[in-house]
């Protein structure tokens, strides 16, 4: 803040302002710095600034009163004394402004240290959050490996089901070949159809065979009743053979039906297990995705807070640098003014 220089002639008449300006008593500001009010426990008072200002103001008070109260001086001397008093008043105001600026600088330094402490306190939370996120990434990797393992198991189960289907088709072909001696048309066997159609076809064929055997048995009994007594015993043996063969065929059909039902139940169980595994895997992935999203949002908020604190810290450092430059400029101005108006030894003896 440049000080306005007062242009005054040393030979001219003294100005009314210089004559009528009373001597300012500078001892009123020694108890405290005007304009600086303690706003709370956070405001700190600079002992160095107050000490410098008080010592300098005491020197001004001790040197300013004799200059104004001396009598028998000429008009030019009185004008020069008025200029000196005015400049010393301005210098005292500049010193007080300097003290205020030093107080503000210390407040800025205190807030800067506070921000630094808060930043250091936030660092453990940030590291803990990063460790938690890394652990969640590991859990996600393990879940991916589990998923790959389950998919491999699913593929193996599908291959086993295909093998079971092929084995069942081969068993059906073998049964058809065994039934070829009972006048069954092998060309009508559904080789490349599903399991239900094959079972229905087998059931219908065996029903036809049973009906035909029953009809043959009825015809044979009728023939027996008509009086063919000589051929009774061979017919009974053949009938018993047919009954035995029919019972064996029925047992075989029942065993095939039981095997088919067991294969079908195994297939349904594998499909249900596969569906449950997919369902729980999807739920687990969804939960992990929500947890990761929440943690990423919290991490972004922490990054935003840290960035905001860093910007505030940079702004405070800039203010501190600017205030130090202004304080240095004020010190330079005060030194120049003091050296300019400091009375020389020869001049003081002449006066």
From TrEMBL:
One Pfam family recorded for the sequence: Filament
Gene Ontology cellular-component terms listed: intermediate filament
MF (Gene Ontology): structural molecule activity
Assigned keywords, A-Z: Coiled coil, Intermediate filament
Record Gene3D superfamilies: 1.20.5.170, Single helix bin, Vasodilator-stimulated phosphoprotein
Alphabetized SMART domains for the sequence: Filament
Superkingdom: Eukaryota
Domain (IF rod): residue spans on this chain: 1-341
One example of a Gene Ontology biological process annotation: intermediate filament organization
Coiled coil: 140-167
InterPro entries: IF_rod_dom, Keratin_I
Protein name (Swiss-Prot/TrEMBL): IF rod domain-containing protein
Taxonomic source organism: Muraenolepis orangiensis
């Amino acid at each position: 803040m440049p000080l306005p220089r007062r242009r005054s002639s040393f030979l001219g008449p003294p100005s009314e302002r210089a004559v009528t300006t009373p001597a300012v008593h500078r001892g009123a500001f020694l108890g405290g710095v005007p304009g600086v009010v303690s706003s709370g426990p956070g405001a700190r008072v600079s002992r160095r600034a107050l000490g410098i200002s008080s010592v300098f103001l005491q020197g001004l008070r001790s040197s300013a009163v004799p200059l104004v109260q001396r009598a028998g001086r000429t008009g030019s001397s009185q004008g020069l004394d008025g200029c000196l008093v005015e400049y010393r008043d301005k210098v005292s105001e500049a010193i007080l402004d300097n003290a205020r600026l030093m107080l503000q600088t210390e407040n800025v330094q205190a807030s800067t240290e506070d921000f630094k402490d808060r930043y250091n306190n936030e660092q453990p939370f940030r590291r803990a959050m990063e460790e938690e996120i890394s652990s969640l990434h590991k859990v996600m990797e393990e879940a991916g490996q589990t998923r790959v393992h389950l998919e491999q198991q699913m593929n193996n189960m599908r291959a086993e089901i295909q093998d079971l289907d092929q084995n069942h088709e081969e068993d059906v072909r073998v049964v058809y070949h065994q039934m070829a001696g009972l006048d069954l048309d092998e060309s009508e066997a559904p080789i490349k159809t599903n399991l239900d159609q094959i079972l229905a076809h087998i059931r219908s064929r065996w029903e036809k065979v049973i009906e035909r055997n029953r009809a043959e048995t009825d015809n044979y009994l009728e023939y027996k009743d008509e009086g063919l007594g000589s051929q009774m015993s061979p017919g009974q043996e053949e009938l018993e053979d047919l009954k035995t063969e029919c019972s064996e065929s029925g047992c075989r059909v029942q065993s095939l039906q039981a095997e088919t039902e067991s294969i079908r139940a195994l297939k349904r169980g594998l499909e249900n297990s596969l569906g449950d595994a997919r369902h729980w895997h999807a739920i687990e992935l969804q939960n992990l995705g929500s947890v990761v999203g929440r943690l990423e949002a919290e991490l972004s908020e922490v990054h935003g807070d840290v960035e905001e604190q860093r910007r505030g810290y940079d702004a405070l450092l800039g203010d501190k640098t600017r205030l130090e430059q202004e304080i240095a400029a004020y010190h330079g101005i005060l030194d120049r003014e003091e050296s300019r108006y400091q009375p020389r030894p020869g001049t003081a003896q002449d006066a």
